[in-house]
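Lab meeting prep.
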Amino acid sequence: MDLSSFNTLGLGSRARDLVVYDNVTQLPALQALVEQGERIFVLGGGSNVVLAEQVDALVIKVESKGIGLLQERDDAYIVEAQAGECWHDFVQYCLNQGWPGLENLALIPGTV
Protein backbone atom coordinates (compact mmCIF):
# COMPACT_ATOMS: atom_id res chain seq x y z
CA MET A 1 0.00 0.00 0.00
CA ASP A 2 1.34 3.40 -1.00
CA LEU A 3 1.95 5.74 1.96
CA SER A 4 3.28 8.76 0.06
CA SER A 5 0.04 10.71 0.55
CA PHE A 6 0.10 9.96 4.29
CA ASN A 7 3.29 11.86 5.12
CA THR A 8 3.80 15.59 4.83
CA LEU A 9 7.12 15.19 3.01
CA GLY A 10 5.40 13.10 0.33
CA LEU A 11 8.18 10.53 0.46
CA GLY A 12 7.63 7.29 -1.38
CA SER A 13 6.92 4.51 1.05
CA ARG A 14 4.98 1.28 0.92
CA ALA A 15 3.33 -0.64 3.75
CA ARG A 16 2.92 -4.40 3.87
CA ASP A 17 -0.70 -3.78 4.94
CA LEU A 18 -2.76 -0.71 5.78
CA VAL A 19 -5.87 -0.19 7.85
CA VAL A 20 -7.59 3.16 8.33
CA TYR A 21 -8.79 3.49 11.92
CA ASP A 22 -11.74 5.88 12.06
CA ASN A 23 -14.14 4.38 14.59
CA VAL A 24 -13.76 2.98 18.10
CA THR A 25 -15.71 -0.10 17.05
CA GLN A 26 -12.52 -1.18 15.23
CA LEU A 27 -10.49 -1.35 18.45
CA PRO A 28 -11.29 -4.97 19.42
CA ALA A 29 -10.15 -6.25 16.02
CA LEU A 30 -6.99 -4.14 16.14
CA GLN A 31 -6.27 -5.30 19.70
CA ALA A 32 -6.63 -8.91 18.57
CA LEU A 33 -4.00 -8.34 15.86
CA VAL A 34 -1.62 -6.88 18.42
CA GLU A 35 -2.19 -9.79 20.80
CA GLN A 36 -1.48 -12.24 17.96
CA GLY A 37 1.91 -10.59 17.55
CA GLU A 38 1.13 -8.62 14.39
CA ARG A 39 3.82 -6.02 13.86
CA ILE A 40 2.15 -2.59 13.72
CA PHE A 41 3.08 1.00 13.01
CA VAL A 42 0.65 3.71 14.10
CA LEU A 43 0.57 6.74 11.82
CA GLY A 44 -1.18 10.00 12.62
CA GLY A 45 -0.98 13.11 10.46
CA GLY A 46 2.34 12.11 8.93
CA SER A 47 4.28 15.15 10.10
CA ASN A 48 7.62 14.82 11.87
CA VAL A 49 8.08 11.35 10.44
CA VAL A 50 10.35 9.99 7.74
CA LEU A 51 9.00 6.66 6.56
CA ALA A 52 11.22 3.88 5.33
CA GLU A 53 10.92 2.93 1.68
CA GLN A 54 9.24 -0.29 2.81
CA VAL A 55 7.36 -0.52 6.14
CA ASP A 56 7.20 -4.22 7.00
CA ALA A 57 4.21 -3.88 9.29
CA LEU A 58 0.50 -3.31 9.41
CA VAL A 59 0.23 0.47 9.26
CA ILE A 60 -2.72 1.80 11.24
CA LYS A 61 -3.60 5.23 9.82
CA VAL A 62 -5.48 7.04 12.58
CA GLU A 63 -8.39 9.17 11.31
CA SER A 64 -10.91 8.94 14.16
CA LYS A 65 -12.80 12.18 14.79
CA GLY A 66 -14.67 13.64 17.72
CA ILE A 67 -14.28 16.28 20.42
CA GLY A 68 -16.28 16.54 23.61
CA LEU A 69 -16.29 18.35 26.91
CA LEU A 70 -16.10 15.79 29.72
CA GLN A 71 -16.08 18.14 32.65
CA GLU A 72 -16.19 21.86 33.35
CA ARG A 73 -14.59 22.94 36.63
CA ASP A 74 -13.81 26.31 38.11
CA ASP A 75 -10.12 25.82 37.28
CA ALA A 76 -10.21 23.69 34.12
CA TYR A 77 -12.08 22.25 31.19
CA ILE A 78 -11.54 18.53 30.73
CA VAL A 79 -11.81 17.82 27.00
CA GLU A 80 -11.62 14.51 25.16
CA ALA A 81 -10.53 14.29 21.54
CA GLN A 82 -10.16 11.37 19.17
CA ALA A 83 -6.61 10.75 17.99
CA GLY A 84 -7.35 11.55 14.34
CA GLU A 85 -8.37 15.15 14.99
CA CYS A 86 -6.06 17.72 13.43
CA TRP A 87 -4.19 19.29 16.36
CA HIS A 88 -4.52 22.90 15.22
CA ASP A 89 -8.23 22.46 14.44
CA PHE A 90 -8.67 20.96 17.91
CA VAL A 91 -7.01 23.99 19.52
CA GLN A 92 -9.18 26.35 17.45
CA TYR A 93 -12.33 24.40 18.32
CA CYS A 94 -11.58 24.61 22.05
CA LEU A 95 -10.95 28.34 21.86
CA ASN A 96 -14.14 28.89 19.85
CA GLN A 97 -16.07 27.04 22.57
CA GLY A 98 -14.62 29.35 25.22
CA TRP A 99 -12.32 26.66 26.65
CA PRO A 100 -9.00 28.50 27.07
CA GLY A 101 -5.60 27.08 27.82
CA LEU A 102 -4.26 25.77 24.51
CA GLU A 103 -3.60 29.12 22.83
CA ASN A 104 0.18 28.79 22.79
CA LEU A 105 -0.03 25.26 21.34
CA ALA A 106 -1.65 26.34 18.06
CA LEU A 107 -0.09 25.60 14.68
CA ILE A 108 1.68 22.41 15.79
CA PRO A 109 1.44 20.00 12.85
CA GLY A 110 -0.09 16.58 13.27
CA THR A 111 -3.01 14.98 14.98
CA VAL A 112 -4.16 14.77 18.59
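Slide two material, second protein:
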Amino acid sequence: MAKRNGKIKQVRADPKTTMSWLCSTDAYESLCCSGYTKLSDNPEIMSAVNKICDLISSMTIHQMENTEKGDIRIKDGLSRMMDIEPNSRMTRKTFISAIVRNMLLRGDGNSIVLPETQDGYLNNMKPIPPGQVTFVQYSAYDYKVSINGTIYSPDDVLHFVINPDEDYPWKGTGYRTTLKEVAGNLKQAAATKKGFMESKWKPSVIVKVDGLTEEFASPEGREKLLESYIETGRVGDPWLIPAEQFDIKEIKPLSLQDLAISDAVTIDKKTVAAILDVPPFIVGAGEYKEAEWNNFINTRIRPLCNVLELEFTKKLLISPNRYFRFNVRSLYNYDMKTLSEVGANLYTRGIVEGNEVRDWIGMSPKDGLDKLVILENYIPAGMIGDQKKLNQGGGENG
Protein backbone atom coordinates (compact mmCIF):
# COMPACT_ATOMS: atom_id res chain seq x y z
CA MET A 1 0.00 0.00 0.00
CA ALA A 2 1.49 3.31 -1.03
CA LYS A 3 2.12 5.92 1.60
CA ARG A 4 0.12 9.09 1.41
CA ASN A 5 1.88 12.38 1.44
CA GLY A 6 0.94 14.32 4.57
CA LYS A 7 1.21 17.66 2.79
CA ILE A 8 -1.94 19.17 1.34
CA LYS A 9 -1.48 20.02 -2.27
CA GLN A 10 -2.82 23.44 -3.16
CA VAL A 11 -4.68 23.63 -6.44
CA ARG A 12 -4.65 26.93 -8.25
CA ALA A 13 -7.35 27.95 -10.64
CA ASP A 14 -6.43 27.94 -14.29
CA PRO A 15 -6.43 31.57 -15.44
CA LYS A 16 -7.81 30.48 -18.80
CA THR A 17 -10.96 29.03 -17.22
CA THR A 18 -11.54 31.80 -14.68
CA MET A 19 -14.23 34.36 -15.41
CA SER A 20 -14.96 37.53 -13.50
CA TRP A 21 -17.41 40.39 -13.80
CA LEU A 22 -16.68 44.00 -13.04
CA CYS A 23 -19.53 46.37 -12.28
CA SER A 24 -20.29 49.20 -9.94
CA THR A 25 -21.97 48.68 -6.57
CA ASP A 26 -25.11 50.47 -7.74
CA ALA A 27 -25.36 48.35 -10.86
CA TYR A 28 -24.89 45.14 -8.87
CA GLU A 29 -27.61 46.08 -6.39
CA SER A 30 -29.98 47.08 -9.21
CA LEU A 31 -29.56 44.05 -11.46
CA CYS A 32 -28.73 41.19 -9.08
CA CYS A 33 -30.73 39.52 -6.35
CA SER A 34 -29.62 36.98 -3.80
CA GLY A 35 -30.96 34.90 -0.95
CA TYR A 36 -33.50 32.10 -0.58
CA THR A 37 -36.83 32.62 -2.30
CA LYS A 38 -39.87 31.07 -0.63
CA LEU A 39 -42.66 29.87 -2.89
CA SER A 40 -45.09 31.98 -0.87
CA ASP A 41 -43.09 35.09 -1.83
CA ASN A 42 -43.62 34.57 -5.56
CA PRO A 43 -46.71 36.39 -6.95
CA GLU A 44 -47.28 33.94 -9.82
CA ILE A 45 -47.09 30.85 -7.63
CA MET A 46 -49.33 32.42 -5.01
CA SER A 47 -51.87 33.42 -7.67
CA ALA A 48 -52.14 29.80 -8.81
CA VAL A 49 -52.27 28.40 -5.26
CA ASN A 50 -54.82 30.98 -4.13
CA LYS A 51 -57.07 30.17 -7.07
CA ILE A 52 -56.94 26.42 -6.34
CA CYS A 53 -57.64 26.99 -2.64
CA ASP A 54 -60.47 29.41 -3.37
CA LEU A 55 -62.20 27.04 -5.78
CA ILE A 56 -61.99 23.92 -3.60
CA SER A 57 -63.04 25.74 -0.44
CA SER A 58 -66.04 27.33 -2.17
CA MET A 59 -67.72 23.99 -2.94
CA THR A 60 -70.30 22.50 -0.62
CA ILE A 61 -69.50 19.11 0.92
CA HIS A 62 -72.28 16.55 0.61
CA GLN A 63 -72.67 13.45 2.79
CA MET A 64 -73.98 10.77 0.47
CA GLU A 65 -75.43 7.30 1.07
CA ASN A 66 -75.62 4.36 -1.31
CA THR A 67 -79.13 2.99 -1.81
CA GLU A 68 -80.67 0.46 -4.17
CA LYS A 69 -82.15 3.25 -6.29
CA GLY A 70 -78.97 5.32 -6.35
CA ASP A 71 -77.02 7.65 -4.11
CA ILE A 72 -78.97 10.15 -1.99
CA ARG A 73 -77.81 13.11 0.08
CA ILE A 74 -77.94 12.82 3.88
CA LYS A 75 -78.48 15.95 5.98
CA ASP A 76 -77.66 15.55 9.68
CA GLY A 77 -75.37 17.01 12.35
CA LEU A 78 -72.23 15.53 10.79
CA SER A 79 -73.03 16.88 7.34
CA ARG A 80 -73.63 20.34 8.82
CA MET A 81 -70.32 20.21 10.68
CA MET A 82 -68.38 19.19 7.57
CA ASP A 83 -70.05 21.76 5.32
CA ILE A 84 -70.36 24.76 7.66
CA GLU A 85 -68.41 24.54 10.92
CA PRO A 86 -65.62 21.91 10.85
CA ASN A 87 -63.62 24.01 13.31
CA SER A 88 -64.81 26.01 16.31
CA ARG A 89 -62.97 29.09 15.04
CA MET A 90 -63.17 28.51 11.29
CA THR A 91 -65.76 28.00 8.60
CA ARG A 92 -65.54 25.42 5.82
CA LYS A 93 -64.08 28.08 3.53
CA THR A 94 -61.03 28.83 5.68
CA PHE A 95 -60.71 25.24 6.93
CA ILE A 96 -60.49 23.63 3.48
CA SER A 97 -58.34 26.47 2.18
CA ALA A 98 -55.80 25.91 4.98
CA ILE A 99 -55.61 22.17 4.22
CA VAL A 100 -55.04 22.66 0.49
CA ARG A 101 -52.52 25.49 1.00
CA ASN A 102 -50.45 23.34 3.35
CA MET A 103 -50.38 20.52 0.81
CA LEU A 104 -49.27 22.75 -2.04
CA LEU A 105 -46.74 24.95 -0.21
CA ARG A 106 -45.18 24.54 3.24
CA GLY A 107 -46.36 21.00 3.82
CA ASP A 108 -44.47 19.65 0.78
CA GLY A 109 -47.41 17.53 -0.31
CA ASN A 110 -48.67 16.75 3.20
CA SER A 111 -51.37 18.29 5.38
CA ILE A 112 -52.32 17.09 8.86
CA VAL A 113 -55.65 17.65 10.63
CA LEU A 114 -56.21 16.55 14.23
CA PRO A 115 -59.83 15.49 14.97
CA GLU A 116 -61.19 16.03 18.49
CA THR A 117 -64.08 14.03 19.92
CA GLN A 118 -66.42 14.52 22.87
CA ASP A 119 -68.57 11.69 24.26
CA GLY A 120 -67.79 9.65 21.17
CA TYR A 121 -68.91 12.36 18.73
CA LEU A 122 -66.70 14.41 16.44
CA ASN A 123 -66.42 17.84 18.04
CA ASN A 124 -63.65 19.73 16.28
CA MET A 125 -60.97 19.42 13.59
CA LYS A 126 -57.73 21.39 13.83
CA PRO A 127 -55.43 21.97 10.84
CA ILE A 128 -51.87 21.60 12.16
CA PRO A 129 -49.20 24.01 10.85
CA PRO A 130 -46.50 22.09 8.90
CA GLY A 131 -43.77 23.42 11.20
CA GLN A 132 -45.31 21.52 14.13
CA VAL A 133 -45.50 18.17 12.32
CA THR A 134 -42.79 15.51 12.06
CA PHE A 135 -43.16 12.10 10.43
CA VAL A 136 -41.49 9.23 12.29
CA GLN A 137 -40.62 6.61 9.70
CA TYR A 138 -40.67 2.98 10.83
CA SER A 139 -40.61 1.34 7.41
CA ALA A 140 -41.66 1.98 3.85
CA TYR A 141 -45.27 1.30 4.82
CA ASP A 142 -45.52 2.27 8.48
CA TYR A 143 -45.03 5.55 10.30
CA LYS A 144 -46.15 7.74 13.16
CA VAL A 145 -47.07 11.42 13.25
CA SER A 146 -45.45 13.70 15.83
CA ILE A 147 -47.32 16.92 16.63
CA ASN A 148 -45.34 19.18 18.96
CA GLY A 149 -43.63 16.09 20.39
CA THR A 150 -46.81 14.05 20.91
CA ILE A 151 -46.89 10.83 18.89
CA TYR A 152 -50.11 9.90 17.07
CA SER A 153 -51.05 6.87 15.04
CA PRO A 154 -51.95 7.59 11.38
CA ASP A 155 -55.43 6.27 12.18
CA ASP A 156 -55.95 9.06 14.74
CA VAL A 157 -55.22 11.97 12.39
CA LEU A 158 -56.30 13.05 8.93
CA HIS A 159 -53.28 12.88 6.62
CA PHE A 160 -53.88 14.40 3.18
CA VAL A 161 -51.25 13.50 0.59
CA ILE A 162 -50.44 14.53 -2.99
CA ASN A 163 -47.65 13.20 -5.22
CA PRO A 164 -46.66 10.10 -3.15
CA ASP A 165 -42.96 9.66 -2.45
CA GLU A 166 -41.15 6.90 -4.32
CA ASP A 167 -39.62 5.30 -1.21
CA TYR A 168 -42.39 6.14 1.27
CA PRO A 169 -45.77 5.96 -0.52
CA TRP A 170 -47.64 7.22 2.55
CA LYS A 171 -45.72 10.50 2.39
CA GLY A 172 -46.38 13.24 -0.14
CA THR A 173 -43.94 15.37 -2.10
CA GLY A 174 -44.60 18.98 -2.97
CA TYR A 175 -43.44 21.36 -5.67
CA ARG A 176 -40.60 23.11 -3.83
CA THR A 177 -37.77 21.43 -5.74
CA THR A 178 -39.51 21.69 -9.10
CA LEU A 179 -40.46 25.35 -8.72
CA LYS A 180 -37.24 26.49 -7.05
CA GLU A 181 -35.40 27.50 -10.22
CA VAL A 182 -38.46 29.07 -11.85
CA ALA A 183 -39.20 31.10 -8.71
CA GLY A 184 -35.58 32.31 -8.70
CA ASN A 185 -35.82 33.34 -12.35
CA LEU A 186 -39.01 35.31 -11.75
CA LYS A 187 -37.47 37.03 -8.73
CA GLN A 188 -34.39 37.94 -10.76
CA ALA A 189 -36.56 39.31 -13.57
CA ALA A 190 -38.52 41.44 -11.12
CA ALA A 191 -35.31 42.76 -9.54
CA THR A 192 -33.82 43.55 -12.96
CA LYS A 193 -36.98 45.33 -14.07
CA LYS A 194 -37.16 47.34 -10.85
CA GLY A 195 -33.50 48.30 -11.05
CA PHE A 196 -33.83 49.24 -14.70
CA MET A 197 -36.88 51.42 -14.12
CA GLU A 198 -35.24 53.17 -11.16
CA SER A 199 -31.86 53.60 -12.81
CA LYS A 200 -30.76 57.16 -13.53
CA TRP A 201 -28.71 56.12 -16.57
CA LYS A 202 -31.54 56.59 -19.06
CA PRO A 203 -31.05 60.02 -20.68
CA SER A 204 -33.09 60.77 -23.77
CA VAL A 205 -30.87 63.66 -24.91
CA ILE A 206 -27.07 63.96 -24.95
CA VAL A 207 -25.47 67.40 -25.18
CA LYS A 208 -21.91 67.46 -26.48
CA VAL A 209 -20.02 70.41 -24.89
CA ASP A 210 -16.54 71.80 -25.55
CA GLY A 211 -14.51 70.52 -22.61
CA LEU A 212 -12.03 73.37 -22.80
CA THR A 213 -14.48 75.90 -21.48
CA GLU A 214 -13.92 76.97 -17.90
CA GLU A 215 -17.53 76.45 -16.93
CA PHE A 216 -17.39 72.74 -17.82
CA ALA A 217 -14.55 72.05 -15.40
CA SER A 218 -16.76 71.88 -12.29
CA PRO A 219 -20.26 70.60 -11.44
CA GLU A 220 -21.32 74.09 -10.59
CA GLY A 221 -20.15 75.30 -13.97
CA ARG A 222 -22.02 72.55 -15.84
CA GLU A 223 -25.14 73.40 -13.87
CA LYS A 224 -24.72 77.04 -14.83
CA LEU A 225 -24.38 76.13 -18.53
CA LEU A 226 -27.63 74.15 -18.41
CA GLU A 227 -29.44 77.02 -16.74
CA SER A 228 -28.06 79.54 -19.23
CA TYR A 229 -28.70 77.76 -22.51
CA ILE A 230 -31.00 74.73 -22.14
CA GLU A 231 -33.42 75.29 -19.28
CA THR A 232 -36.35 77.54 -20.25
CA GLY A 233 -39.07 79.31 -18.35
CA ARG A 234 -41.96 77.96 -20.39
CA VAL A 235 -42.67 74.63 -22.04
CA GLY A 236 -41.93 74.75 -25.76
CA ASP A 237 -39.47 77.67 -25.67
CA PRO A 238 -36.59 77.16 -28.14
CA TRP A 239 -33.00 76.58 -27.01
CA LEU A 240 -30.47 79.25 -27.92
CA ILE A 241 -26.97 77.74 -27.85
CA PRO A 242 -23.60 78.72 -29.37
CA ALA A 243 -22.83 76.41 -32.29
CA GLU A 244 -19.11 76.31 -31.45
CA GLN A 245 -19.61 74.82 -27.98
CA PHE A 246 -22.72 72.58 -28.14
CA ASP A 247 -23.75 69.57 -30.23
CA ILE A 248 -27.10 68.03 -29.29
CA LYS A 249 -28.12 64.49 -30.22
CA GLU A 250 -31.26 62.54 -29.44
CA ILE A 251 -30.79 58.93 -28.41
CA LYS A 252 -33.14 56.00 -27.79
CA PRO A 253 -32.53 54.47 -24.34
CA LEU A 254 -32.40 50.71 -23.82
CA SER A 255 -35.84 49.28 -23.06
CA LEU A 256 -37.07 46.15 -21.32
CA GLN A 257 -38.08 44.84 -24.74
CA ASP A 258 -34.44 45.04 -25.81
CA LEU A 259 -33.46 43.01 -22.75
CA ALA A 260 -36.04 40.30 -23.72
CA ILE A 261 -37.21 40.17 -20.11
CA SER A 262 -40.86 40.07 -21.11
CA ASP A 263 -40.44 36.91 -23.21
CA ALA A 264 -38.44 35.16 -20.48
CA VAL A 265 -41.01 36.07 -17.82
CA THR A 266 -43.84 34.76 -20.01
CA ILE A 267 -42.05 31.44 -20.44
CA ASP A 268 -41.43 31.15 -16.68
CA LYS A 269 -45.08 31.97 -15.93
CA LYS A 270 -46.25 29.26 -18.31
CA THR A 271 -43.82 26.86 -16.64
CA VAL A 272 -45.37 27.66 -13.25
CA ALA A 273 -48.83 27.10 -14.73
CA ALA A 274 -47.76 23.75 -16.20
CA ILE A 275 -46.19 22.51 -12.95
CA LEU A 276 -49.18 23.50 -10.80
CA ASP A 277 -51.54 22.41 -13.60
CA VAL A 278 -53.52 25.63 -13.83
CA PRO A 279 -54.54 27.62 -16.94
CA PRO A 280 -51.84 30.14 -17.96
CA PHE A 281 -54.23 33.11 -17.68
CA ILE A 282 -54.39 32.57 -13.91
CA VAL A 283 -50.69 33.53 -13.61
CA GLY A 284 -50.97 36.34 -16.16
CA ALA A 285 -49.75 34.55 -19.29
CA GLY A 286 -52.66 34.05 -21.64
CA GLU A 287 -56.34 34.68 -22.18
CA TYR A 288 -59.39 33.07 -20.63
CA LYS A 289 -60.94 30.16 -22.53
CA GLU A 290 -64.08 28.39 -21.39
CA ALA A 291 -62.98 24.94 -22.59
CA GLU A 292 -59.61 25.35 -20.88
CA TRP A 293 -61.31 26.37 -17.64
CA ASN A 294 -63.65 23.37 -17.61
CA ASN A 295 -60.73 21.06 -18.33
CA PHE A 296 -58.88 22.64 -15.38
CA ILE A 297 -61.81 21.89 -13.09
CA ASN A 298 -62.04 18.31 -14.34
CA THR A 299 -58.34 17.40 -14.36
CA ARG A 300 -56.93 19.46 -11.49
CA ILE A 301 -59.62 20.54 -9.02
CA ARG A 302 -61.52 17.24 -9.08
CA PRO A 303 -58.44 15.06 -8.26
CA LEU A 304 -57.53 17.32 -5.35
CA CYS A 305 -61.10 17.06 -4.10
CA ASN A 306 -60.79 13.27 -4.29
CA VAL A 307 -57.81 13.43 -1.91
CA LEU A 308 -59.96 15.18 0.70
CA GLU A 309 -63.09 13.13 0.03
CA LEU A 310 -61.36 9.77 0.48
CA GLU A 311 -59.55 10.76 3.68
CA PHE A 312 -62.69 12.24 5.22
CA THR A 313 -64.68 9.14 4.30
CA LYS A 314 -62.04 6.70 5.52
CA LYS A 315 -61.38 8.33 8.90
CA LEU A 316 -64.69 9.99 9.87
CA LEU A 317 -67.49 7.70 8.66
CA ILE A 318 -68.36 4.34 10.22
CA SER A 319 -71.10 3.30 7.83
CA PRO A 320 -69.71 1.54 4.73
CA ASN A 321 -72.59 2.92 2.66
CA ARG A 322 -71.80 6.59 3.25
CA TYR A 323 -69.19 8.88 1.77
CA PHE A 324 -68.35 12.58 1.37
CA ARG A 325 -68.46 14.33 -1.98
CA PHE A 326 -67.61 17.85 -3.12
CA ASN A 327 -70.10 19.54 -5.43
CA VAL A 328 -67.64 19.90 -8.31
CA ARG A 329 -70.41 20.53 -10.85
CA SER A 330 -70.93 24.00 -9.37
CA LEU A 331 -67.52 25.12 -10.67
CA TYR A 332 -68.03 24.36 -14.35
CA ASN A 333 -68.56 27.44 -16.45
CA TYR A 334 -71.96 27.20 -18.11
CA ASP A 335 -73.92 30.23 -19.23
CA MET A 336 -77.59 30.73 -18.37
CA LYS A 337 -78.73 29.78 -21.88
CA THR A 338 -76.98 26.42 -21.78
CA LEU A 339 -78.33 25.57 -18.32
CA SER A 340 -81.85 26.57 -19.34
CA GLU A 341 -81.80 24.47 -22.51
CA VAL A 342 -80.39 21.40 -20.77
CA GLY A 343 -82.82 21.76 -17.87
CA ALA A 344 -85.82 22.20 -20.17
CA ASN A 345 -84.92 19.11 -22.18
CA LEU A 346 -84.49 16.99 -19.05
CA TYR A 347 -87.76 18.29 -17.59
CA THR A 348 -89.87 17.59 -20.68
CA ARG A 349 -88.44 14.07 -20.86
CA GLY A 350 -89.44 13.32 -17.27
CA ILE A 351 -85.85 12.95 -16.03
CA VAL A 352 -85.76 15.84 -13.51
CA GLU A 353 -88.38 17.88 -11.70
CA GLY A 354 -89.15 21.47 -12.54
CA ASN A 355 -87.89 22.71 -9.19
CA GLU A 356 -84.55 21.02 -9.83
CA VAL A 357 -84.21 23.03 -13.02
CA ARG A 358 -85.13 26.21 -11.17
CA ASP A 359 -82.47 25.43 -8.58
CA TRP A 360 -79.83 25.11 -11.34
CA ILE A 361 -80.52 28.62 -12.59
CA GLY A 362 -80.72 30.13 -9.09
CA MET A 363 -84.48 30.42 -8.71
CA SER A 364 -86.61 29.47 -5.69
CA PRO A 365 -88.89 26.38 -5.87
CA LYS A 366 -92.50 26.75 -6.93
CA ASP A 367 -95.63 24.75 -6.10
CA GLY A 368 -96.66 22.27 -8.77
CA LEU A 369 -93.17 21.72 -10.14
CA ASP A 370 -92.17 18.93 -7.80
CA LYS A 371 -93.45 16.11 -10.02
CA LEU A 372 -91.99 14.35 -13.02
CA VAL A 373 -93.88 15.11 -16.24
CA ILE A 374 -93.48 13.92 -19.80
CA LEU A 375 -94.85 15.04 -23.14
CA GLU A 376 -97.41 12.80 -24.83
CA ASN A 377 -95.23 11.94 -27.81
CA TYR A 378 -92.38 10.64 -25.65
CA ILE A 379 -93.48 6.98 -25.47
CA PRO A 380 -91.64 3.67 -25.86
CA ALA A 381 -90.84 2.62 -29.42
CA GLY A 382 -93.06 -0.48 -29.14
CA MET A 383 -96.12 1.65 -28.41
CA ILE A 384 -95.91 3.99 -31.39
CA GLY A 385 -98.94 2.38 -33.02
CA ASP A 386 -101.07 2.90 -29.91
CA GLN A 387 -101.19 6.69 -30.24
CA LYS A 388 -104.77 8.00 -30.38
CA LYS A 389 -104.14 10.35 -33.24
CA LEU A 390 -103.04 7.42 -35.40
CA ASN A 391 -106.05 5.28 -34.53
CA GLN A 392 -108.77 7.90 -35.00
CA GLY A 393 -110.72 6.85 -38.10
CA GLY A 394 -108.05 4.45 -39.19
CA GLY A 395 -110.42 1.46 -39.54
CA GLU A 396 -113.06 3.32 -41.62
CA ASN A 397 -110.58 4.55 -44.18
CA GLY A 398 -108.95 1.17 -44.46
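Talking points for slide two:
Residues 1-22, 27-31 have pLDDT under 50 and may be disordered.
The chain is about 40% helix and 15% strand.
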